[in-house]
């Protein structure tokens, strides 16, 4: 009987609507626990818990961009649920995409030897950034930015003997404090949690901060996404963004774009590794040609 109800709710999307209606009636401690369960990868078998988790997701996607950005920060990434997400991924470097990341970083450094800085937006537990910094000691400045204060403090302690600066804060606000000339800006599984408006703002603001920088993005996308669809909700707060199209719309030049199927993911989902040059670099190159 319970399974039949669950199947009916999934087919009609009523599970999200019902869950969202119940949220105001529940204590915040319970809702917070459901958020932690969601981001730690645990799915509840109890029908009521599942309803509430779907209600949280439904409320998120049905909210305005400003509300989504506020919820993302306050309720998830800066909270206990964000720490749970990062903890679950400790000791798990992205084996499938790592070779592509290393290859693209090597290309950036070869093509622009003046590149001296590596900054990761959404560095999480810091392990990927630490690995890349170890592989490329020519980066004299390595910075990891994350919204979770507790995780940032743990990273500082764990990697205190390494020349990596870990900062808790907003991406754009923190990037404004750093010299971005000759910098590689990295993301891995971070921009999928940017709502469309927030992502477009990031891409439009970065060129205002530097004349020469490169982007290296490693983000999951839905491969069945329509070509004219720039943003598609993927579930669990995530979006599939058409990164190459969006970057080109903002004047970036795509150096390479690779789709990599990850183990354990849905067939229609793949990691999109994109290397791109900032608009100013592109304009200079075009002027030379």
Description:
It is a single chain. The chain has helices at residues 2-12, 14-22, 28-39, 47-61, 65-77, 80-88, 98-111, 127-135, 149-158, 171-175, 196-209, 243-249, 279-288; strands at 117-121, 141-146, 165-168, 183-188, 213-222, 231-235, 238-241, 253-260, 269-277. The protein is of the alpha/beta class. The strands form 2 sheets. The protein has a 7-stranded mixed β-sheet with strand order 3-2-1-4-5-9-8. A two-stranded antiparallel sheet has the order 6-7. Strand 2, helix 9 (149-158) and strand 3 form a beta-alpha-beta unit. The longest helix has 15 residues, at 47-61. Mean pLDDT is 88; it is low at 1-9 and 283-289.
């Amino acid at each position: 009987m319970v399974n039949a109800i669950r199947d009916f709710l999934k087919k009609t999307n009523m599970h999200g609507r019902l869950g969202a209606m119940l949220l105001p009636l529940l204590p915040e401690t319970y809702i917070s626990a459901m958020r932690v369960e969601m981001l730690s990868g645990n799915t509840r078998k109890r029908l009521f818990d599942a309803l509430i988790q779907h209600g949280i997701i439904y409320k998120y996607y049905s909210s305005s961009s400003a509300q989504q950005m506020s919820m993302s920060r306050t309720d998830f990434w800066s909270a206990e649920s964000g720490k749970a997400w990062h903890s679950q991924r400790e000791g798990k470097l992205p084996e499938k995409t790592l070779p592509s990341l290393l290859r693209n970083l090597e290309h950036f450094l070869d093509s622009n030897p003046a590149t001296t800085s590596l900054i990761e937006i959404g560095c999480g537990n810091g392990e990927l950034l630490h690995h890349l910094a170890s592989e490329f000691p020519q980066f004299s400045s390595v910075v990891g930015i994350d919204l979770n204060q507790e995780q940032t403090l743990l990273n500082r302690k764990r990697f205190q003997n390494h020349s990596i600066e870990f900062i808790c804060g907003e991406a754009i606000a923190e990037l404004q404090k750093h010299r971005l000339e000759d910098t590689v800006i990295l993301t891995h599984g971070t921009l999928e949690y940017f709502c469309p408006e927030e992502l477009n703002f990031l891409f439009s603001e970065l060129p205002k901060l530097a004349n020469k920088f490169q982007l290296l993005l490693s983000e999951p996308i839905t491969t069945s996404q329509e070509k004219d669809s720039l943003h598609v909700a993927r579930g669990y707060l995530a979006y599939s963004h058409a990164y190459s199209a969006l970057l080109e719309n903002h004047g970036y030049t795509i150096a390479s774009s690779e789709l990599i199927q990850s183990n354990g993911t849905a067939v229609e989902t793949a990691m999109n590794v994109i290397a791109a040059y900032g608009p100013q670099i592109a304009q200079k190159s075009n002027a030379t040609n």
